[in-house]
Amino acid sequence: xxxxxxxxxxxxxxxxxxxxxxxxxxxxxxxxxxxxxxxxxxxxxxxxxxxxxxxxxxxxxxxxxxxxxxxxxxxxxxxxxxxxxxxxxxxxxxxxxxxxxxxxxxxxxxxxxxxxxxxxxxxxxxxxxxxxxxxxxxxxxxxxxxxxxxxxxxxxxxxxxxxxxxxxxxxxxxxxxxxxxxxxxxxxxxxxxxxxxxxxxxxxxxxxxxxxxxxxxxxxxxxxxxxxxxxxxxxxxxxxxxxxxxxxxxxxxxxxxxxxxxxxxxxxxxxxxxxxxxxxxxxxxxxxxxxxxxxxxxxxxxxxxxxxxxxxxxxxxxxxxxxxxxxxxxxxxxxxxxxxxxxxxxxxxxx
Length: 351
Ligand code: NAD
Ligand code: DAU
Hints:
Bound molecules: nicotinamide-adenine-dinucleotide, 2'deoxy-thymidine-5'-diphospho-alpha-D-glucose
CATH architecture of the domain at 5-189 and 225-252 and 293-315: 3-Layer(aba) Sandwich
Largest sheet: 7 strands, parallel
């Protein structure tokens, strides 16, 4: 079959990547979507069951650091667009193991750039390398204001430093080689299929299994939460209509103090689990703060709304409730990812 476009998505078995893969496979039957993922602890093919048999979807198990592999995929499949999401993504893991973040996020991105540059070989017509990044590159805010695309980079954790470094490298390829790139920097995502080391699924899983909810420090840190499908829609718009060389911030205009968010989640969970009012809140336990913990993130996405017409449209309370339902209903998914058994799924399916 001849496809209108051949798009390589890296990290498509992760939380956001699997949402983007499903979104693109379903919305664009005339695009071939190739998902390259190493299937680290965070990558799970169970996230992609809904697209497994689709004729415009292909999965390749592999490492973004393997340049010959990336080049051969790009040549064989005539890839004209890259959506680069593969990364190590958890701040706490970056504090205990920064080296891995430099390998994957910095050198992995460099390898992807070099592979695409070699394969496209100066013919950049209708080509695009889209690098998906984070608002954490801008550092931490005080009580007011929001990150704009002009906010100076000031990353504070090994994770955000590695993402900032990869953003700089992507921009350097645009400036130096006219290599066609676009970057977006997004705030905290939530939704189904998020690995339960991140705050929201961790809290749900702990309450479900009778464990306390660890809140770092005093729980006063603020994050700007966006439903993952809103992010996938933004990625689709930026990929198709973003201006090469530009950066777009993506955010939810939805700031929550950690403790307020967890209190809300606990109240919903009381209802869902048939517990008496306040039972889940009593599981909140304040623990030692994250080292170098950023205080507040808030994203100004007016450039994206003004230029491309994107708005976060999902209602936070409704989507949070739906997200909680999803984790409660998908018990085996949670058990598999927490036990590591999801790796067996790949073995059984692909040998
Ligand atoms: P995730 O940890 O859920 O998934 C990462 C995926 O990348 C996994 O499937 C993993 O197997 C894959 N991967 C890791 N190393 C690889 C390698 N060397 N080769 C191939 N694949 C590899 O991450 P996520 O939360 O879905 O984040 C995806 C991207 O979006 C990341 O670049 C992250 O920095 C960015 N981002 C995340 C958020 C968020 O709230 N989660 C917000 C803004 C930006
Ligand atoms: O802002 C975008 C970023 O959001 C992404 O780039 C990252 O990949 C993603 O992991 C997320 O980073 P955070 O560090 O903000 O997310 P996390 O869910 O780890 O933590 C959210 C907040 O909750 C943060 O202030 C730390 C706090 N926290 C987290 C955990 C895991 C707790 O209080 N207790 C916890 O157990």
